[in-house]
Every structure is written in structure tokens, then in C-alpha cells.
Amino acid sequence: MTERTQDRCRDDADSVAVDPAARRLSRIKLISIFAIFAVPLLLASIWLHMVRSSGGQIGDTSRGQLIRPAVPLTEFALEQQDSEFTLNSVRGLWTLLYMPAGECQEACQRNLYHMRQVRLALNHRMDRVQRAVLVESSAQLDEALLAEHPGLIVATGDAAAQQQLQDQVQAAQSGMDELPDAIYLIDPLGNLMLRFPPDLDPKSMLKDLKHLLKVSRIG
Asked: Are 206 and 122 in contact (CB under 8 A)?
């Protein structure tokens, strides 16, 4: 074997013998590449588990509660000031719906106030949100109270018509804890998707709505 051939064989042998430091560096690179893809998936799984176990709430328990999955409302027919309040009335806009029982006392007045102020705080996005209250009779809201809430949709109707919508709302949250005096959110496609506790800090409601309006391309 010539000297040149021997040198070539030694070079080939050296290329086969991988330096331990280079091998360790290569292994670190492979682990890093794996982590880039695996860690986000792991975090997403943890987040999903937290959402499921918290009943749709993460961290701050005063935030709105998700209705999962969102429930599409079916046709209903109620009366409002000079027209009808139907499923078409909620399509195309985000709707805050409140259904007080009996006369509009302190809790009812507070909810109406929060709905109004939250909508106003949306600033240039406020026209994408409407407010509706379902009452047994328009007499539940006196004229002085109505004057404080311009633009509020006051829906009413006979007992059967009201029950038709109320039953849908109750069925949508059948797997959740009861939450009397809640405020509900209907998306622009007519899906009941969120409810807000009556003792909610309105800043939390505002935060939820701002997020939804920011990421949504509908309504």
C-alpha cells in the first residue's frame, strides 16, 4: 500500500471517529429542535385541561363563563317598542341579554347599568353591541329608568313566547351550575356563548368583550 493510500485511509478513519464534544453538541441541537415543536403542544394541552377543569374560567373567577359548546338559538318571536324581537334581531350584532324576574329592583338596575357602561366603554366598537332585556311586562321598567338607558331593547310578549326563549337559555347551560340573574352574550350568528355572574366586576365583562370584538371578524 502506497504512502498516499495509507494517508487517505487514516483520514477516513478520523472522519468516522466523531469527537465526543461534537456528538454532544449535535444531541443538544436535536433536543432543542424537538423542544421548539413539543413545548407549545404541551402548553396547549395544559391550557385546554385548565379550561375544562375550571368550567370555562381561567384564574380570575369573576370572568365570564363559557357555554361550551356555544348553542345556536332557534326561532323565537317577542315584542319590543314598535316592532318584533326575533332571532333575526340578534344576528349581525353581539347581544347582551338580561332576563330579570319580577320588578326591576337593585340587582336588576345594577345589571342594566353595567351593560350600558360596558358598551359605552367599548368606544369605537360600541356599535357592534346591543343590549336587550326580557321582561314579563313593560311595566317592570318605569319611565325614569328607561330614560337612563337609551337604545335598550325591551322585549316582552305572552307567557308562551317568553318561555320559548327562556327554555332555550336554560337548556344551553343545563350542564353548568345555576346562575340566577346572569347576563348572557349572544354572538352575531345567534349562538348563546357566554354568561356573566350578577356580582361580576364590569371591568371583567369589558375585558371579555374587548377580546371577542378584537379577534372576531363577524358582527
From this structure: yes
- What are residue 96's DSSP bridge partners? 131, 185
Q: Which residues pair with 195 in a beta bridge?
A: 65, 184
Question: What value, to the nearest 5°, has the Cα angle with vertex 206 and ends 113 and 129?
Answer: 75
CB proximity list for 192: less than 8 A, separation 6 or greater: 67, 70, 71, 72, 73, 168, 169, 172, 184, 185, 186
* Span 14-37, pLDDT tens digits: 544 556 777 777 777 776 666 565
Omega before 202 cis (within 30°)? no
- The domain defined by 63-215 folds into Glutaredoxin (3.40.30)
**44: which 3 cell numbers?**
396547549
| The residue to which cell 498516499 is assigned | 4
The three cell numbers of residue 150 are 337609551
Model confidence pLDDT, tens digit, residues 141-154:
999 999 999 999 99
Among the listed residues 130, 127, 125, the one whose alpha carbon sits nearest the alpha carbon of residue 210: 125
Residues 90 and 161: their CA atoms lie apart, in Å, by 16
Interhelix angle 202-215/106-121, rounded to 10 degrees, is 40
DSSP assignment, residue 98? E
- Contact call for residues 185 and 193 (beta carbons, < 8 A): yes
